[in-house]
Specification:
The chain is mainly beta. 7% of the residues lie in helices and 43% in strands.
């Protein structure tokens, strides 16, 4: 799992050009699921980086957990692999990026 617990961590994630979810040759799978816990509340905007180390086949084994966020915005043209859990958030997907997974959120806006 990965914990993103500070604004500095979130800012760093947003500034990545490429995000590597490959852990020493192990990619998310049924035997090695990946949970990314974003432990920040309030409004979060994310310019999605290129996730070159994973593809749609890994999406079922990745969970983006935004347990305390109230608003989330994904933008850019890069795909997001995995499902998004944001039970208290208004989720806004901007741009041409694909979301290779499911969304469970308080509301969902597709732009």
């Amino acid at each position: 799992y990965i914990n993103i617990a500070t604004t500095a961590d979130w800012t760093k994630l947003g500034s990545l050009g490429t995000m590597n979810l490959n852990n020493n040759g192990v990619v998310p799978s049924a035997t090695s699921p990946l949970i990314i816990n974003v432990q920040l509340s309030g409004t979060l905007a994310w310019n999605v980086p290129n996730m070159s180390s994973v593809s749609a086949q890994h999406g079922p084994f990745i969970l983006w957990n935004f347990s305390t966020a109230t608003a989330i915005s994904f933008s850019n043209n890069n795909s997001v692999y995995g499902s998004v859990l944001a039970p208290f958030a208004a989720f806004n997907k901007n741009g041409g990026n694909n979301l290779e997974g499911q969304v469970a959120s308080a509301s969902f806006i597709l732009q």
